[in-house]
Amino acid sequence: MQRKQNRIVVARYIKYICELLEIHNMQTLTNRSKLVDRKPMTALERIYLWNILKGMMITFRHIFKKKATINYPEQKRSFSAVFRGLQILNRDEEGRERCTACGLCAVACPAEAITMEGAERLPTEEHLYREEKYAAKYEINMLRCIFCGLCEEACPKDAIYLSQTFAQANYSREGFIYKKEDLLIPHPKENPEAYAKALGERKKISK
Questions:
Q1: Max CA-CA distance within the chain?
Q2: pTM for the full model?
Q3: What is the rounded distance in angstroms from the CA atom of residue 128 to the CA atom of residue 94?
Q4: In this predicted structure, what is the pLDDT of residue 118?
Q5: 203 and 160 Cβ atoms separated by less than 8 Å
Q6: Which candidate in 8, 119, 126, 145 could, as Cys together with 113 as Cys, close a disulfide (CB 3.0–4.6 Å)?
């Protein structure tokens, strides 16, 4: 009952405002509104030939202009230097993982898309991990990620950055949860070409 009364009050208020606008003959700020022409259509307008011809003229005019589309994936657009794409877990020059599982990227993420588990490095794993602590598990939920780049800014070890690569499409929700193996950059010594491609135009930073 109360909702019905509120609707009646709102309807009366809107009607009152409309009456005021008609009385004072107020105009819109942009003056873009136009009165609809209600005159009867001519015989030419009824068969819509003129409107079809106008549409075809616009189409043929674009044939001679530069195309805005590209033949993807054969052709790819060049990305800006500040483009934020798929996250990459970085390595140092010797191929050791930089991530120390400090959790700053997960805390900085506004979408709470990052989860990780830390582990202690063994004496025989010094060639695999740069610090005494490393990320044994690292996952990013791409369905939550908004590619804001805050994880990259929060990382003190330059262990994560947003590359110039699109996130791949998938057919299931589980496929959008990227694990450490999916995010880790290729080894710079074992696969230098793939490492340079993943690095892109990003400058090397040693911390």
A1: 90
A2: 0.63
A3: 9
A4: 93
A5: no
A6: 145
